[in-house]
Amino acid sequence: MRKLCGLLALAALAVATGALAQTYPTKPIYLYIPFAAGGPTDTLGRNLAQVMGKPLKVQIIVENVVGAGGTIAVARAAKAAPDGYTVLLHHIGMSTAPALYRTLTFDPLKDFEYIGEVADVPMTMIARGNFPAANFNEFLAYIKANKDKVTYANAGLGAASHLCGLLFMTAIQTDFTTVPYKGTGPAMNDLLGGQVDFMCDQTTNTTGQILGGKVKVFGVTSKKRVPSLPNVPTLDEQGIKGFDVVVWHGLYVPKGTPKPVVGRLNAALLDAIKDADFKANLARLGAEPVSADRARPEALHKLLQSEIAKWGPIIKKAGQYAD
Length: 323
Prior knowledge:
Elements: H1 2-23, E1 29-33, H2 40-56, E2 60-64, H3 71-79, E3 86-90, H4 93-100, E4 112-128, H5 136-145, E5 151-154, H6 160-172, E6 177-180, H7 184-192, E7 198-202, H8 203-211, E8 215-220, E9 246-254, H9 259-274, H10 276-284, E10 288-289, H11 297-318
Parallel strand pairs: 1-2, 1-3, 5-6, 5-7
Antiparallel strand pairs: 3-9, 4-7, 4-8, 4-9, 4-10
């Protein structure tokens, strides 16, 4: 009798699961962005929300949940109902939080289900328009000669610009003064105004400023050049061998979200990365969607594990932590 009851329960669960897959979603989905509106991750998220909403046939509402280097949004997403109506878009910062923060209320590897990777965004090394260097060699020489007074802007602890700065200091074996801001927008504004000297930020935020001649650009941080900036060489080309910082982005939902819901979201993501308008919009910003094999739950999980292992030692060596 118990065996029969167990089989009936499993059958009922299967029917319910199948029904859920057919009916989800029935209302708007909220996409949490851990950073301020107008920033690079926000730009990507708004483009993504538009194209993913088409196959899902609902509106995806972008909600900027800012603060504490993105950890407030991650913590809120982790505690949300596991029903598929709260989705988190986060970048490389998902993998650096365990090393940057002494105490976290979430575990990136245990508290989420994975939808898949979304896009890769290279970064550019840029400086104020009147920076006294005409090329990368002069730029590097100036930083080393003026390391005690040169200022590097970033969007705050854990931001991609912060991480790029850490790697750059290690690569050139020179420490310089970092100036953290509460987001990319304020950092860029001060760079444009000449209050700080240079920064490293995602192409989604810098391409327009570069093409408009408002900043000086001294290199791209990826292994290959960016199609939208074909005349800008990589840092590797210019002697910083092996320097490779590409900001990957992934989609997550709270742990326990039903597999059929994860499957529906993944299918919408796979549609999005093939969407011609999405690809064109990202290309104009120097970014590109990932391949289909990377836009999978298992691929994002594997990447997150490897990136946590990569960044932990770098951050600990730098000794930069948050309380």
